[in-house]
Amino acid sequence: MSDLQKPAPLLPSDAEHDGPLFFVIAIIVFLASLAAISGFLAVQNVTHWQQTLQSEMTVQIKSGNMAQAEQAARQLSTFPGVKNARAASRDEAKALLEPWLGADNIPDDLPIPLLVHVQLEQQNPPDAKTLAAALAATGIDASVDDHQHWAKDLARSARAVQILSIVVLALLVTASIAVTGFATRAGLAARRDLVEVLHLVGARDRVIAKLFGRRFVVLGFKAGASGAVLAAISIAILLASGVGSSSFLGGAVRPGFAHLLLLLPVPVLTAIVGGWTAKWSVLSNLRKTTQ
Amino acid sequence: MSHVGLRYGNGPEVLRDINLTLHQGSLQFLTGPSGAGKTTLLKLIYLALHPSRGFVQLFGQDTSLASRDDLAYLRRKIGVVFQGFGLLDHLSVFENVALPLRVTGREHQDYQADVKDLLSWVGLGKVLDVSPATLSGGEKQRVAIARAVVAKPELLIADEPTGNVDPEMGKRLMRLFLELNRLGSTVLIASHDTNLIQAVIADIYSLTDGALSFLPARKKKKPK
Predict the structure, then answer these.
(1) Cβ-count burial of A28 within 10 angstroms (0-12 exposed, 13-18 middle, 19+ buried)?
(2) Chain A partners of B103 at a C-beta cutoff of 8 Å?
(3) pTM of this structure
């Protein structure tokens, strides 16, 4: 005689339905993980670029020579709130034009703007107008760019990427809930006999719902773990192959071990979503179909 | 039950103006031709259906006002032998019989001996761990009966409980019902088996075309 010491599970395994559902949820989790990591990195990178832009100003000497640029740099270095100022050499200025004109296409007699790079203190940095006025007072005709135009563009980009990531995540979570709900209803229909008998021997709705909920917690955890691992491997391969090095994924802030830690709670979250959806579907279905 | 009627959807009433009182500790038979609505009436009593009209009170509680949890607790006081047995093939005979105890949260060790004893009593002691799918109709019926009585219900409802067993086993199962009744359970048995009905002194309810009539026990024993 077999072992009667341990009660058999009331809800038998349902490989026919669970197998395909596992793959669907794993794929959804994989896509959601990629969306979450990409969105997070994009926002981190944009924030980094924004901070860099805001901690610098560029002064363009409108008319004059290198000596005037160096004089402006010396003057600005002593200005309150300025960390340092340095006149860019002609070669540095040429390097800035190379992406547009080509390395060997810049004639020596081409007038190139004289630039001064100004690094600002984080505390009480001066504004662009104050620096321009200070230079004008010493007879230097210059324009000061505080990069606000680019900083605003980046802030808009960061917000857009953030919203896009949240929308993609929300859609994927909704898809996951819908798929789990559909699978639960299919499971209920397949085990109508069990539900009826349990109901009539006095099982409370919550007990019946818990049976299905538990199954989807386990399934959700396994599928969530598989999807998250797959996403981690995919990101690692992308980075190792150098793909996207100039994109949000491969900017100043690159994905590392710390970012992969973001995927750690994914299996638990998937299990919670799966279990909750299944329980809710069963409770709702029982209320509709039984007294 | 008071002036209870039941219809499915917009169809005609399959049960009409049913007035039925099952006194605590009583034993009754429900009889009537096939299709008269016996199983439907039993379903109303064991709370598988909700009446279209009328009033149902069970163990002193108005079922129309009971919450779903309350209804579950009421069902725990009822043991049902379904006409189609209602056994779960993925569970063993032992697990099927233990189901009413398990859903109440009782520990496996607490009820194991009781369930084994009961299954031995109904002659199924050697098939504890097999699937009901492998049993004969009569054996399935005994499993269904064992499951209905295992929790010592206050109300036992049996729908054709001896339909698939031989006369000897039928008598044995009837003794089980009588013993349960003697211990205080109310018993309602729906049956076509006139031999079974005549063998026991009990009130009889007869259902014909959805209407219920009552034949008290003493009338049945009235000398001709």
Answers:
(1) buried
(2) 198, 201-204, 207
(3) 0.72
